[in-house]
Design brief:
By secondary structure, the protein is of the alpha+beta class. It has four domains: 103 residues, Helix Hairpins, CATH 1.10.287; 94 residues, Urease metallochaperone UreE, N-terminal domain (HSP40/DNAj peptide-binding domain, Sandwich), CATH 2.60.260; 72 residues, HSP40/DNAj peptide-binding domain, CATH 2.60.260.20; 37 residues, no CATH class. A four-stranded mixed β-sheet has the order 10-11-15-14. The protein has a three-stranded mixed β-sheet with strand order 1-9-8. A hairpin with a 2-residue loop joins strand 12 and strand 13. It starts with a helix and ends with a helix.
Amino acid sequence: MARDYYEILGVRRDASKDEIKKAYRRLARELHPDVNPDPATQDRFKEVTQAYEVLSDDSKRRMFDMGADPFAPSGGGGGAGAGGFGAAGFPFDDIMNAFFGGGQPGAGRSARDRVRRGRSIKVRIELDLAETAFGVTKDVTFPTAVLCNTCQGEGTAKGTHRQTCDMCQGRGEVSQVARSFLGQVMTTRPCPQCSGQGTIITDPCADCAGEGRVREKVTRKVQIPAGVEDGTQIQLAGEGEVGPNGGPRGDIFLEIVQRPHPTFERRGDDLHCTITVPMTAAALGASFTFDTLDGTEEIDLRPGTSSGHVITLPGHGTRHLDGAGRGDLMIQVDVETPAKLDEEQEALLRKFAELRGEDQPPGKFSPGHGGLFSRLRDAFGAR
């Protein structure tokens, strides 16, 4: 007794013909040798096909339900050699339909193979920070394949047409029958004469050499949305290369490259920068103007600001890609200590340090003792 064909297809014993057919097509798509050439998978595909041949045939199904094996030599069902692969009962049309859509038996797939979708292409586009932050319309130029205007995608010279291939009779494929342990196995492959197209060109178009398309540079006006960042990809569906023989276009994928900005560093939708202020401005406080992406802003530096302090300007970053609001601008303060002082400046700073009890450390730079720096020295055990 063969395996349970209902179990192989994953259907109930009272499943209708439509349910059996749907189950078979689903498994055929997964297991067909063109999709998965693994030997174990091919054995599974043969098993699924055998189960479908039995359950889709009323007489064979009744025989199986009664406990007989339709493929056994005495089963009266013809066995695999008589009614197996390639015979009238073998559902090769169902296999083709499962992969290539509907159609009449023997119709082949020349039209579907001949007109193929064009290749998708990737185009890099460089943008400034302000363009990625607020969006921009750009003219993008790139090489691609376009429809041949001379033959309008047919690939034939003016006044001529494609001829039906005499080897495959327009089917685009040729069949071969071989014997296996399951009986006769019919395999199909693309026709070698027409490369699976079903037709041949005897007089090709001089401009496209029979391909139905030519290469040229084209320019597209592209709307870049606000909030894109470095590495973002934008898909332009149906704007890529036209397919061979006038087939549908592929897609364009725009890859955004954001140029470095002299002031701001972008982190997500927030902008970061560092400003350097004099020690006196940090101590006393100050106001200054600052150029943002939105224009000039007045910044107030509070008295006593130390290095590392961050001033935040809410809503001054880049727009969110979903259009809901903006990021922030983060300004980090770096307090600059003077490296060179003249005598008057040094005297004033010494007096300032003396008034605050922050006199200079002892050593060759200052003869004083007992101030803050000397206390730090003693605390850390310096010599």
